[in-house]
Amino acid sequence: MTHPSEPDWDPLAAAVQADPRAAVDALRERCPVAFDRGGTATVLRHPDVLRVLHDPATFSSAVSAHPAVPNGYDPPRHTAYRRALDPFFAPQRIRHFGPQCRRLAVRTVQEALTLGDVDVGRELALPFAARVQSAFLGWPGLIQDELLDWLQRSHAATRSGDRRQTAAVAREFEAFVERVRDARTGAPPTQDISTELMHVQIDGRPLDLRELSSVLRNWTVGEIGTIAASVGILLHWLATEPDWQQRLRDEPALLPAAIDEVLRRDGPLPANRRVTTRAVELGGRPLPTGTRLSLNWIAANRDPRALAEPDRLRLDRDPALNLLYGTGIHVCPGAPLARLELRLLLEEVLIRTQSIALPAGHTPTRAAPPNAGYAQLRIRLR
């Protein structure tokens, strides 16, 4: 495979790490398909990202050396797994989980209100996301701390780019899932979602340990990490927009649209990967077979070609243009659960406070790629 002798950008440059949104906005206008030094082409414009998402035959999801079920598969294999797994996020199941999710939101907000200034990530967002995911999967409460510790190691491995480190944390999670599976062996499939998942059939057979581990890792990392990032983004927005605080207290029915629009403007997930299966041109750049792609959700969702005045918060936008949860065959199956969590948490924050603000003198710190949102954020709830 060939790529430019000189890279178009450096994702690890200090300016990119300090302000990822501004960096990818500028890059999108200068070089809509941009190669880095390692040969990965970052796709930044909304129309080009859509083209990739709707052509899995040319732009494959089979990019990982480790099983990634089902997001690392292409049709028809992907189709079989999604058909088996999507019912776990069906509307009736999410509605049934709603009261339990609200109780966890109430508990988390009440705890935060006793703290004064709240470290959003450590004391609110991550505990809430881990509690909800543990409850949804039917895991005991004690697992939450273990999950959060593992998630930190997983993020560190991703940032390192060290495949051995990444493989090691994957094996850690597989051992964890093996314990979960062994504790449920022989239990009826109605016990909880994890037990039900053990009874899922693919081509007439149950999921093996690696598949089960991959599914649960995908749900866990995808849910906890992005929910925590989303909570930080949303609470920072409310803390800096008192007029919106009051409007949403007065009109809580606006919350679902407002949440999706805020997270379009400031996304919780930077990118997903693909690889070309044939030579193709994209965004004016020739891409040989085997070119690694990074679809930059943040840049695409802020592309003025598709979304006029991208920095302006507008609740009347066409929701189909928002790539927050993706689109096409790989659209996020957990979107209904994520929307439920975020809505209920913000409802409880707004109901139980009169003021959400940044503490005097506090300057939040943005998270550096491959993470998004805020690395350091404190808010004052009153």
Q: How would you portray this structure in words?
A:
With about 375 residues, this protein is an alpha+beta fold. It has one domain: Orthogonal Bundle (Cytochrome p450). It is built from 14 helices and 14 strands. The protein has helices at about 15-20, 20-30, 45-55, 75-85, 90-115, 120-135, 145-160, 165-185, 195-200, 210-240, 240-250, 255-265, 295-300, 335-350, and strands spanning about 35, 40-45, 60, 115-120, 200, 205, 270-275, 280, 285, 290-295, 355, 365, 375, 380. β5 and β6 form a beta hairpin. α5 (about 90-115) runs antiparallel to α6 and α8 crosses α10. The radius of gyration is 21 Å and the shape is globular. The mean pLDDT is about 95.
Helicity, as a percent range: 40-55%
How would you characterize the largest beta sheet?
A: 5 strands, mixed
- Shape from CA axes? globular
**So, CATH architecture?**
Orthogonal Bundle
Provide the gyration radius in Å.
Answer: 21 Å
Q: Name the CATH class.
A: Mainly Alpha
Low-confidence stretches: none
Number of helices: 14
Give the helices and strands as they follow along the chain. Answer: HHEEHEHHEHHHHEEHHHEEEEHHEEEE
- How would you write the strand order of the largest sheet? 1-2-10-7-3
Q: What's the number of domains?
A: 1
Distance between the termini: 57 Å
Backbone structural class: alpha+beta
From the 3D structure, determine the CATH topology.
Cytochrome p450
What keyword list fits this structure?
382 residues; alpha+beta; five-stranded mixed sheet; globular
